[in-house]
């Protein structure tokens, strides 16, 4: 059920994100900005089942719109051009990005009223935790 993701989520913690960005190949300056950003995540779903996922911070806002199980072109916050597919697996939104022969997986789940985002690249795992805004 995608509905449990719908709403505005505020980041409360971020672990190992710098190492994750390094694994992606993100340069130092962009990583500094990425580490300073404390984005809100906004999820919505329209009548056609199109999911809108927006990441908003004072530094940058990115937005992707997609349907589950349909590949789409994404330009990430760090300017990677990826082929991305999002699936729903065991209640988790699983976003797989592929570019230049590389893959990363972002797994989001709602547990205990929090949204937990696991960012995985090879053996590197970053965990970002969000709480729902009223």
UniProtKB/TrEMBL annotation:
UniProt domain Cytosolic fatty-acid binding proteins: residue ranges: 7-24
Family according to the record: Belongs to the calycin superfamily. Fatty-acid binding protein (FABP) family.
Protein name (Swiss-Prot/TrEMBL): Cytosolic fatty-acid binding proteins domain-containing protein
Matching Pfam families: Lipocalin
Keyword check for Iron: no
Gene3D superfamilies membership: 2.40.128.20
Listed CDD domains: FABP11 (cd19616)
InterPro entries membership: Calycin, Fatty_acid-bd, ILBP, Lipocln_cytosolic_FA-bd_dom
Domain of life: Eukaryota
MF GO annotations: lipid binding
Record key words, sorted: Transport
Organism: Aldrovandia affinis
Entry-linked PROSITE patterns: FABP
């Amino acid at each position: 059920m995608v509905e449990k993701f719908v709403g505005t989520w505020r980041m409360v913690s971020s672990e190992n994100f710098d190492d994750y960005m390094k694994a992606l190949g993100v340069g130092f300056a962009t990583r500094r900005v990425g580490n300073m950003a404390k984005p809100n995540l906004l999820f919505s779903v329209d009548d056609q089942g199109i999911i809108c996922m927006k990441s908003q911070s004072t530094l940058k806002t990115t937005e992707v719109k997609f349907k589950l199980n349909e590949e789409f072109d994404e330009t990430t916050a760090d300017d990677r051009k990826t082929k991305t597919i999002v699936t729903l697996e065991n209640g988790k939104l699983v976003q797989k990005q592929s570019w230049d022969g590389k893959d990363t997986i972002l797994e989001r789940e709602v547990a205990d009223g929090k949204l937990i985002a696991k960012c995985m690249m090879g053996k590197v795992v970053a965990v970002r935790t969000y709480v729902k805004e009223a």
